[in-house]
Design goal:
The protein has five helices and eight strands; from the N terminus they run ββααββββββααα. The protein is of the alpha+beta class. Pfam families: AHSA1.
């Protein structure tokens, strides 16, 4: 399993997931840079993602939806802030309506995804920061730890394929 550590801190308003992969940083980066690969790992296995827009550059936007086993679609968006390929990118991530408009009553995460070379592989650190403890608690209650962990754990199969 790639996920090696999961921590949430209601005082710091953060959720941090650490994972390690037996592939070079450049290969792991490609997963996030290519929307067709990203679709295979962004949602949990039972909620596959479809990226409708994918513009991974500063100021770019990514729109996606995840489809439940019952066929329900849950939309989300990214506003890309910075990109330092293949080491790091930062973005806001939130929930959206069917036209990819942000849902104002749902939490928005400020994300920093970092990829570091270690022993011929990659350590990925995913840090999400929320505006309030209530916002963080809301996504925790929605199952973000389980969902994100199972999504990230799909990366090994993609790398092996």
């Amino acid at each position: 399993m790639p996920v090696t550590d999961v921590r949430h801190d209601l005082d710091e308003l953060t959720l941090t997931i650490t994972a390690e992969f037996a592939a070079p940083v450049e290969r792991v980066w490609q997963i996030y840079a290519d929307p067709r690969q990203l679709e295979r790992i962004w949602g949990p296995p039972t909620y596959p993602a479809t990226f409708v827009d994918h513009d991974l550059r500063p100021g770019g936007r990514c729109n996606y939806y995840m489809t439940s086993p019952e066929g329900e679609k849950f939309a989300g968006w990214w506003e890309v802030k910075t990109v330092d390929a293949p080491r790091e990118f930062t973005f806001e991530d939130g929930f959206a309506d069917e036209e990819f408009n942000p849902l104002p009553d749902m939490p928005v995460a400020q994300n920093v995804f970092t990829f570091t070379a270690i022993d011929g592989g990659t350590r990925a650190t995913y840090v999400s920061t929320y505006a309030s403890a209530d916002a963080l608690q809301k996504v925790l209650d929605m199952g973000v730890v389980e969902g994100a962990s199972t999504a990230i754990n799909q990366i090994d199969d993609l790398l092996a394929g």
